[in-house]
Design goal:
This protein is an alpha/beta fold. The chain has one domain. The strands form 2 sheets. Strands 1-9-8-2-5-3-4 form a 7-stranded mixed sheet, sandwiched between helices. Keywords: Acyltransferase, Cell inner membrane, Cell membrane, Membrane, Transferase, Transmembrane, Transmembrane helix.
């Protein structure tokens, strides 16, 4: 525990130094970091290449190489932009991350309905959670997996909740939603994490591979009778993003088993195929 504490306090000045960089310098640093990770260190390069080759067997070696190179730049942009959350202002977030159709969310809330919003690990999902908590008049509940280092976990917790988001550990989801019974909210979930094999998972084909998907989204939507939407995040230019909420299911209790899960998996797959370098290929999605 002492080593974790020492590592945290030693890294904190560097993190704040990066966070206070103006955006042009921040992206110069990101370019440098991408070069180091791609050309020098080869950070998880074999995992990335294997994931890409299995997902896009139709692509040439040169096409896979280009996606890989662009992935590292997107990856390091996401890292430095997440660090930037240590000192970013509300007005800066609102300028750089636009909600295209907040009326979709507001209309459900006006009806007294809650929403389950699915996102993927695409581009900058962290800023998306911040801007949603700013934009909504109702609580934004973000489900997350706590970090093992309690010091970094508290830092990330503070960053994600600074504009009002309610951060809830994955294991406490049911308890928290029970507290919100009768009160509209938007629940933000990542729909592309590896769930393991066993009860509560759904087996499907995703990016040409047998894939297990957590059924938490589907179960939660049915249990709470919440509308299901997908948060489609796109990059307009470097450092500027927009999200469009796409309605997937209005009446979850009328759906067949697996229907909601298939819908959000297929939508995520569509986005990845359109912009393959923007997904988090460095994680071991298929184990």
């Amino acid at each position: 525990m002492k080593l974790k504490k020492i590592a945290y306090y030693l890294s904190l000045p560097l993190l704040y130094l990066i966070a206070w960089l103006p955006f042009p310098l921040l992206y110069l640093f990101s370019d440098f970091l991408a070069f180091i990770l791609f050309r020098v260190v080869g950070y998880r390069k074999q995992v990335i290449l294997l994931n890409l080759k299995n997902s896009f067997p139709e692509k040439t070696v040169d096409e896979i190489e280009k996606i890989t190179r662009n992935f590292y730049r997107n990856f390091t942009d996401m890292i430095v932009e997440s660090i930037k959350m240590l000192c970013i202002s509300k007005s800066e977030i609102e300028k750089r991350f636009t909600l295209k159709n907040p009326e979709l969310i507001n209309n459900y809330h006006d009806q007294g309905r809650s929403i389950v919003a699915i996102v993927g690990h695409l581009i900058n999902w962290e800023w998306g959670c911040l801007v949603q908590s700013i934009s909504s008049s109702k609580d934004s509940i973000v489900i997350y997996k706590p970090l093992k280092n309690k010091y970094y976990n508290q830092l990330v917790y503070n960053m994600r909740t600074q504009f009002g988001a309610v951060l809830v550990p994955m294991k406490s989801t049911l308890r928290k939603l029970t507290e919100y019974k009768g009160k509209p909210y938007i629940l933000l979930l990542a729909g592309d994490q590896y769930p393991g094999k066993g009860e509560g998972v759904y087996k499907t084909s995703f990016l040409n591979q047998t894939t297990y998907v957590h059924l938490g989204t589907e179960k939660t939507a049915k249990m709470t009778d919440s509308a299901v939407v997908f948060g489609d995040i796109r990059r307009k230019s470097r450092g500027f993003y927009e999200v469009t909420y796409v309605s997937l299911i209005d009446k979850p209790q009328n759906t067949a088993p697996g229907e909601i899960t298939e819908l959000h998996v297929r939508y995520l797959e569509k986005i990845i195929r359109e912009s393959p370098d923007t997904w988090l290929w460095s994680h071991r999605r298929w184990k």
